[in-house]
Amino acid sequence: MLKDNLALVEKNIEEACKRAGRKREEVTLIAVSKTKPVEMLQEIYDAGSREFGENKVQEMCDKIEQLPKDIHWHMIGHLQTNKVKYIVGRTALIHSVDSLHLAKEIQKQAVKADVIVPILVEVNIAEEDSKFGIHSDETIALVSEIAKLDHLHIEGLMTIAPFVSNPEENRVYFRGIRELAVDINNQKIDNVSMGILSMGMTNDYTVAIEEGSTMVRVGTGIFGERNYNI
Ligand SMILES: *Cc1c(COP(=O)(O)O)cnc(C)c1O
Questions:
Q1: What are the respective helix, strand and coil percentages of the chain, to the nearest 5?
Q2: Per residue in 202-211, pLDDT tens?
Q3: Which amino acid residue places its CA nearest to atom 5 of ligand 1?
Q4: Phi and psi dihedrals of 17, rounded to 5?
Q5: Closest CA to 156 of 187, 182, 132
Q6: d(CA 34, ligand 1 centre) in Å
Q7: Three-class SS state of 18
Q8: Best substitution site from 51, 76, 199, 215 to test ligand 1's pocket, by max atoms within 8 Å of Cβ?
């Protein structure tokens, strides 16, 4: 049963918070539902989840239509500028902003829709060629530029850590993100807060929480393996 998976993830989060001397309320669990049918999302909704993460614009929009209106939708996937108009005003948070070009398109659509769009800046902390996100040494400069766009609000940083067999290997990267957030905070840039650190997935969310994550994105651990071939 999916709700048993959810309960296990909840228990792990609680224990990780305890180990780190943190409060459970400091960590938001996002149920990453990409590729999964709405019936499965409804099941997790009925078990109490209100935060869902999707990585494709079309799929997210379809699901928004079919599911209850009090869900907070998180865009966690790479975003093409021509798709921005479909999600502005419909997402609780865009986690994957990694260029000024994309930020400017979000600004343009946000002005049109008369909304303020909360975003995270995606950092490729391990500098893997296969991943989106900017390198950590470019982050402060990008944050400073995006901060000038008055219809965006930078809430923090997001990262996707490397795929590793031992999650301990990612501890250094999660710590790096937290330190980078502290550095950015010290710059005291207007229109920028660093309250959210979106880091940790099924394989490594407990380590991420120990290192200060405030949002974990868990897909497989809740919904089971994804099958991209059907
Ligand atoms: C798919 C995805 C996740 C969830 O991954 P799992 O390993 O299934 O928990 C988290 N974050 C992002 C950005 C994703 O694309």
A1: 45, 20, 35
A2: 999 999 999 9
A3: 219
A4: -60, -45
A5: 182
A6: 8
A7: helix
A8: 76
